[in-house]
Amino acid sequence: MKKIIFALSLFSVQHVGAQTLEKMQWFNEPEQWKIENNSLLMSVTPHCDYWRISHYGFTVDDAPFYYATYGGEFEVKVRVAGDYKTRFDQAGLMLRIDHENYIKAGVEFVDGKYNLSTVVTHHTSDWSVITLDEAVPYVWIKAVRRLDAVEIFYSFDDKTYVMMRNAWLKDNTPVQVGLMAACPDGDGFNVVFDSFKVKHLPDQRRLEWLKKDAGGE
Fold first, then answer.
1. I need a surface site. Which of 80, 111, 136, 158 has the fewest CB within 10 A?
2. pTM given for the model
3. Residue 192 pairs with which residues in a beta bridge?
């Protein structure tokens, strides 16, 4: 593992009950990264992305993704800070079933502006953005998977969350859940993922069944 010196001083690291990052695994491991104080610090691979076919006419599946696999329903969130520099520099959460079915959501730098960005891919990709009025030092991204839907939220304080997308994702299927960054046009940038946490949610169908049948299993 190569040592990285990051110029980011955007926020102080919080020692919150993060998932055990050391137990996660890489898809497209970048050359430079490290785990420090429950944070993942990454130097994003140049010229990499996740996208399938639509609008641009190409497919790429080569950006760094650090993940663990979860079944059932859950809530996941993370705080993200990056020194975005080049068009389409991006970082955030990813939920991925396979190369044709995934959701990525986070901050994306486009034409000099910061955007809250979500890409939903089921064979072909779509893209939705919320443009921010000014640069932000960091943002919280949260995803809640319930049945066959994933709700995506953002927050600037980890208290007030605003929904940015509701998307379909096949239920009853294990999902790779983790931290994604991409640099389609540039030569790479640095990003910090802080306080990553996945919270199990009891299966909604089973809860409804239990209400109807109080006799138990």
1. 111
2. 0.89
3. 41, 81
Give the pLDDT confidence of 4-15 residue by residue, as tens digits. 444 444 444 444
What would the 3-class secondary structure string for the chain be? CECCCCCCCCCCCCCCCCCCHHHCEEECCCCEEEEECCEEEEECCCCECEEECCCCCCEEECCCEEEEEECCEEEEEEEEEECCCCCCEEEEEEEEEECCEEEEEEEEEECCEEEEEEEEEECEEEEEEEECCCCCCCEEEEEEEECCEEEEEEECCCCCCEEEEEEECCCCCCEEEEEEEEECCCCCCEEEEEEEEEEEECCHHHHHHHHHCCCCC
Label residues 122-144 b or e (16+ Cβ within 10 Å = b). beebebeeeeeeeeeeebbbbbb
In angstroms, the CA 189 to CA 179 distance is 15
- Portion of the chain with pLDDT greater than 70, in percent: 90
